[in-house]
Amino acid sequence: MAVYAGKDNQTIVRADRPKSLLRNSIVKPSLGASIMNAKYANGLPLYRISQEFQRNDFHISRQVMANWMIQLAERYLGIVYAS
Fold first, then answer.
1. Which of 58, 62, 59, 68 is nearest to 25 (CA)?
2. SS3 55
3. Helices 62-72 and 46-55 meet at what angle, rounded to 10?
4. Can you state the percent helix, strand and coil of the chain, rounding each to 5?
5. CA pair distance 12, 3, nearest whole angstrom
């Protein structure tokens, strides 16, 4: 979250917090899209995606990613496959 000083250097301007994709979750649009792309477009299993994240010191379990994919698909893609 960005915090800026006002033009008069007395006021502090704080940007609104971006709306979360999933409540109480660290998943952001870019992370969710990255996992979806790796899993569904590139055909990588979640354990390999998890291993790739761990190599970069970012630990996300397969179960968490699977839950994110289910919730994101239901919430944001349900309109597409329901019609």
1. 68
2. helix
3. 120
4. 55, 5, 40
5. 7
CA distance 25 to 31: 11
Q: What pLDDT digit, counting tens, does each position of 4-37 carry? A: 666 666 677 677 776 788 888 889 999 999 999 9
Report how far residue 37's alpha carbon sits from residue 51's, in angstroms, rounded to the nearest whole number: 16
Q: What is the pTM of this model?
A: 0.74
Residues contacting residue 4 through CB under 8 Å, at least 6 positions apart: 12, 13, 14, 15
